[in-house]
Structures are given as C-alpha cells and as structure tokens.
Amino acid sequence: MFVQNRLSSWIADIRQQIALPLRIELWNGQHVDFSSEAPRVTIRLPNVSAARYLLTPSLSNLGAAYVEGAIEVKGRAHDMIAIVNALARTTLKAEGKFARVVRSIGHSKQQDAEAIRYHYDVSNEFYQQFLDPAMVYSCAYFEHGDEDLATAQAKKIDHILRKIELKPNQTLLDIGCGWGALVIRAAQQYQARCVGITLSENQYELARERVRRAGLEHLVEIRLQDYRDVRGQFDRITSVGMFEHVGVKHLSEYFATIHKLLAPDGVVMNHGITTTDPDNGETPYGGGAFIDKYVFPQGELAHIGHVLKAMQQGKLEVSDVENLRRHYARTCAIWTDNFEANTERVQALAGDKRYRIWHVYLAGCSYAFEQDWISLYQIVGRKAGQRSAALPWSRRHMYPQEPQRAAADAHYALTGDGLPSFSLLQEDGGAAMASPPPAIKSFSAK
C-alpha cells in the first residue's frame, strides 16, 4: 500500500507539471494517461515492485528496468527516449546523484580488448541490420543535409582522406579500422599502402575477406592488434570512432603513441565523440551509467578542450577542428529507424535483451547529440614544430569545387559481393577512375 500511495502521489505531481503522450498500465489492469493526446509510449508495470523504477526515473533506472524485463515499454525508440528524459528532468535534481559524474576506469590491454569484443563481436549480420552496406560504424557526413546514409558515409570517408591530403603510395595506419571501408577506399582511389588494426575478431575476419575480394591484398593489411603494439612510422594516421575507448587519463599517452608512429612530415586525423561537460562528466540523468553497464564497458568521453590539451602534451600540433554534432544526431536517428525496421531479424540474431539494449542506446545517442550533451569532432594534426613547405595555406583542399550538385555527390555503389565501390570526382566535375596499382610486396611498418 505504501508503494501504491507513493506512486499515486508521483503521478499526480507529474501530471500537474507536464503533459506527455504517455500511458502507464498498472498491474491491476488500471491505466493512467498523462495528457489528452493519444499515448505514443506505454509503460506497463507488471507488479507493484516495478513501481520503484518510476519513482526515480533516471535513464539508468528505467533503461535497466526495460532491458532486464522488469517493466514493459511500447513505442518508437525516439519517443521513448524523449519521454523518459522529460520524466527525469521533471523529477530529478540536475545536481543530484544522477548529474554528470566522472568515473575512474582501468584501461589495460586486456580490459580494452574485452570491452571491444563485448560491443563489436555480437555478429556481423547484427550490425548489417542498421548500418549502411559498407558497414561504416561512425558519424556520417551530410554535406547537403539530405543524403541517404550510404552516400553520407562515403562522403565522410572522402572528407577524411582529403583532410589528411593522402597521396599515392603513402603509408596509412587506420586505428580501429572497423570492417575496412576506409582502408579499402584509400587503396582503391589513392593506391595508399594501408594497415588497418582492430581488436574485434569479427571485424578482423570480415575486413580481411573484403580486402581479398576487392583484390587489394597487395595494398591493405588488416591486423588484430592493439595500437600500443604497432611499430614503425606512417605518412598518414586516421582514428575514427576509436579514441572513446582510450580513457580520459590516457589520452596524452595515446597521442604520444600516434606521434611516435607518425612520419616527420605526416598528418593525423582523429574523429571521435566528446562530452560537452567541461569537467569530462558523463551525460546527465544516468545515461552514461547505462551505456557503461550495457553498451560500451570502459568507454569514457573527454571534453574537446581536454582533447586538444592532450594532443599538445603528445607533441602534436592541431591544424584543423570541425564539429559534426548535428551529423551524428542524424546518423544515429537513421540507424534507429533501420534497427526498428528490422526488429524481427535483430531479435532473432541477438535475443530480446540485447535488442532492448540497442533499441535504447541508438535512440538515446541521437537524443544526446541533439541536446548537445555530447558532440563529435574531427581534429587534424601534425608533429609539433614541423616546418614544411607542403603545408596548405587554406582549407580549400577539403572541399572540391564542382559546378553542380549532381557532380558534387560522391558516387557510392555496391559490387555484386557487397563491397563498397567509389568513383573519385575531379574539380572539373569528371570522374577519375584509378588505374590498377602496381603490386607491392612489402609496405607496412611492422
């Protein structure tokens, strides 16, 4: 009776403060609506003990209850996240226990490898249900804002390769190479000699197979390797969607390692998620705690100011910074739509619990980017103190000048076996198809 009375009081308090398209179904068959609008989300409490999750409706509490099956939630993921956040804002204190907390996390090689495998080694087919055909699992680049996901991901890769001024026969290290899209593109269009590293066995196997099917084994090597174990030097280094796993306290060491691996006149591009909290705190209302427990163990986000400081401590000079926060909000929204469109297949591949985890996670990320709780920055840098005549005087090389919108769109297609195939656009609007590169027997730094 005590819990029922508390719940009744909580419901009355919420309804006085805010109208939500929410219905709560109780264990006794009764239901409560929170506005005259038709409910877009329904939360069902199967028993009286489940009411405690609503009484403290943090993202971590309600998210965990949904994932573990303690409550039932029906509705589109975007609506679920928006309504839960509204409940949290109305009920919880921003400076309370669910504020932006800072955790201390260990990052040994074994811990990082286990965390990566937990997240990425679900199955390749699982990721294929919501990613683009090339399986690019990072923020896309919507040059005009209306591109489909495949085109936007192709443009993102081109945008990066232009930023680092990649040239034929240069060596490229891609830290956290995913399923190989960037190194395949770099080899196809620039004849770059590429090494891609990952800690995910599933990514490693499929990326190697894609390289083989593309006929690029003489130019691309995929390794199952920690970035701290790479040796040699590279003309170009990219890190896309990886440094979130490094740890805030280890960022200067991470960038120092990149400095060691970078050729004297080399260029590095780091693409990663940051927090917008200046103190490196997690997303509010328990969102960070949920992600750490269920999605990205060991993951940490730093503020952009902290990242730039860490790069300087790692003896890297920053030459360009670009904020792609809106781009990632849209990317995650598209992933969420794809995920929900393939609900039955995802549940069959990953089970109900993992489905619920990702249902919340993808939409929650889109919401967090929309709210400016987290952001995404691409940062270009070089070894500090380098005096190079090759340095560009402007940013024009990042943005090809095509005369028409149709010509400006990056052409993205799929071959019969699902491999990405790009055509490189010249500044005059014509397509420059790369000629077959010469065989290179040995190219990678060991």
Structure description:
The termini are far apart. The protein is an alpha/beta fold and 446 residues long. 44% of the residues are buried. The protein folds into two domains: 90 residues, Nonspecific Lipid-transfer Protein, Chain A; 314 residues, 3-Layer(aba) Sandwich (Rossmann fold). Strands 7-6-5-8-9-11-10 form a seven-stranded mixed sheet, sandwiched between helices.
How would you summarize what this structure contains?
The chain has 446 residues and is of the alpha/beta class. The chain contains 15 helices and 14 strands.
Can you lay out the helices and strands and say which pair or pack?
Blueprint lengths: L1 H16 L4 E4 L5 E3 L7 E4 L6 H5 L3 H10 L3 E3 L2 H15 L17 H12 L3 H5 L20 H15 L7 E5 L5 H10 L2 E6 L2 H13 L6 E5 L9 E7 L10 H11 E14 L11 H8 L9 H10 L2 E8 L1 H17 L1 H28 L3 E10 L21 H4 L2 E4 L5 E6 L5 E2 L14
Parallel strand pairs: 1-3, 5-6, 5-8, 6-7, 8-9
Antiparallel strand pairs: 1-2, 3-4, 9-11, 10-11, 12-13, 13-14
